[in-house]
Every structure is written in C-alpha cells, then in structure tokens.
Design goal:
By secondary structure, this protein is of the alpha+beta class. The chain has nine helices and 15 strands. It is elongated.
Length: 326
C-alpha cells in the first residue's frame, strides 16, 4: 500500500474530523513533507480535503470518491488484515475477473469491486444491469475447506448478509427469494451469483467466487426491468462503502462457521416464497405447488398439487398469481 493510500486510510477512519499532519507522519513513520505531498496528490484525485493550520487535515463527509480505503475504514481490524480489497473503474464482470485470478493462484479473501460492469452476469446466463456509480458490484474469492455440497450455503449466508446490510443502510425490510435474490417492496434490488471450481478427486472446492450486485440510488432502469427491479436509497452521500463493509462483516461472521448454519433461521424468516403458490421449473420439468418452507439443506420445500411433498435444491421459481408488492 502506498503512502498516499495509507494517508487516505487514516483520513477515511476520521472522516469529518481533523487529523494533524504530525500525527499522520508519526503513524506512518514518514516526514511531514511526505504527508503534504500525499495530501496534495489525494486532492488532485478529487478528494475533498480541508487543511487548517494547527488543526491538520480533514476529509469532508461530502467527499464521495469510491475507494478501497473507504471500505476498509468501515471494517474491523481483523477483516482489514484478512481481506485484500480493490476498487476499479470498470470491468466486464467482477466474477469473471476473479475466476481468472483464482486460476492463477489468487488468494482467499481477495475482494474486487467495480464502479461499473459492461457484462455483469446473473444466474442462468442472464445479464445484470450495472451502470456507473449507481450500484455495488462486488466479488469475493474464497478457498473453502469443505465439500462442494456446502456451496449452496455460501449463497444462502450471502443472501442474509446482503439483506442485513441493505436494511441497515436504508432502514428497510428486505426479503429473500430463494435462493439468491433480495427483494424490497416486491421488487428485486440485489442478485447473488456463486461460481465454483470442483476438485473431483477430493469432492471439495478448488475455489468459489461469490458475486453480489446491489442497485443503489439507481434512478433509471431499462424498459424490461422497470416493473421488476428497484433500488436501495438513503440520505447518505454514497452508500457503497458502508453497504460493502456491512456485507463483508456479516458474511465472514457466518462463513467462518458455515457448518453451524447460524444464518438459517433468519433466511427462513425472510423467505419471500413461503406460503406462496409457485411453478417450479427444473430442466424440462415443471411442478406446481405451495411453498411450505426451507429445509436444513437449504432446499425449497413444496407441497405439490397432488398433495405430495417435494424438496428442490436447484431450478427456477415463478409465482403463479399476482405481483409481489404487498
């Protein structure tokens, strides 16, 4: 990490308050002149920094350039040490980028965030709308020490983590549409895509890449999304650093003890589909029934039209009647 990035870390942690140049120099073991140069470089990048004699430097609360440092500032020291976070202006897909990195030996805990995506991806080959500055587009590289069958739990605990982060940021009450979508007031605000490489000899995972896209302060959607998508908005200048950090904090809290399934009760309580009449599509087969819950293996439990009970671990769900807005 460069001196400039370290200075920004310090200012982000004290955003809205002054930190003396002497204190920054002492923390970083550099000269006051090096601090001054770093501050000027940050200003040239567009950061709003006030300098006052005998008070020091203050990063304005209205300074909204999205950086890795703005995410780090909202994390615990343990997570700051564990995660390697990068924020880039644009990629095709954060998942695609991290999968390529994983194949080259990329480290567990690598986090890639993009300001925009030109080829954002969702489940079943769908695209994910990813305009500049109006969403959080983030992927996390994981190298878990458990079987491939546990991969569904990664997505499930990510869904609960995303729902919690959104609720806290926007004072909202979100729900989860099995298995990987977050809904607010009946419309989708977040999608999650987990992709994994399986070691067929051991039955474990070589790696998993967890991707998350959240619509934040998105004012305009394409015509095909207007009736099904919505955004999370709040009075904060930029929700992205806060939501990213909240997601990571919640997710790794669950992930570090994934076998305990501490997220399961909350996943069930947030289930959008429980009690709803659905059509479940799996391959060329379609099943009609009513969702009765989520079992311990994260399967969707459905009472079929003929009265028999079925559990589904993969497939596509369509609601039979009405829209989702309460």
């Amino acid at each position: 990490m460069t001196i400039k990035e370290q200075i920004l870390n310090i200012l982000e942690s004290a955003k809205g308050s002054f930190v003396s140049g002497e204190e920054i120099a002492e923390i970083l073991s550099v000269s006051r002149n090096a601090v001054w140069k770093g501050i000027n470089s940050l200003k040239a990048d567009g950061h709003i920094i006030t300098a006052v004699t005998n008070k020091g430097y203050c990063l304005s609360e209205n300074s909204s350039i999205f950086t890795a440092q703005s995410v780090y500032a909202n994390l615990s020291s343990a997570l700051r040490e564990k995660l390697v976070i990068s924020v880039v202006p644009e990629v095709g897909s954060t998942n695609t980028e991290l999968k390529a990195l994983a194949e080259k030996g990329g480290a567990d805990g690598t986090v890639l965030i993009a300001v925009s995506q030109t080829a954002g991806r969702g489940r079943l080959g769908r695209s994910f709308y990813s305009p500049k500055d109006t969403g959080l587009y983030m992927s996390v590289l994981l190298r878990p020490d458990f079987s491939a069958s546990e991969a569904l739990n990664i997505t499930a605990c990510a869904a609960v983590s995303a729902a919690r982060a959104i609720d806290k940021a926007a004072d909202a009450e979100t729900q989860i549409k099995w298995v990987n979508d977050i809904y607010l007031d009946g419309k989708k605000v977040c999608g999650i895509l987990t992709e994994a490489s399986i070691d067929f000899e051991s039955g474990g995972l070589n790696y998993a890449v967890l991707g998350i896209g959240i619509n934040l302060n998105t004012e305009v959607f394409p015509d095909e999304l207007k009736n099904v998508a919505a955004c999370v908005s709040a009075d904060k200048t930029d929700l992205r650093p806060f939501v990213a950090a909240e997601f990571l904090r919640n997710f790794f809290g669950y992930y570090n003890n994934l076998s305990e399934r501490e997220f399961l009760s909350e996943y069930r309580s947030r289930s959008l589909l429980t009690g709803k009449e659905i059509t479940f599509v799996r391959g060329n087969d379609a099943f009609n029934g009513t969702v009765t819950g989520i079992d311990d293996e994260m399967r969707l439990v459905v009472t079929l039209a003929d009265g028999k009970e079925a559990s589904f671990s993969s497939g596509e769900v369509q609601l039979v009647k009405g829209d989702l807005v309460k």
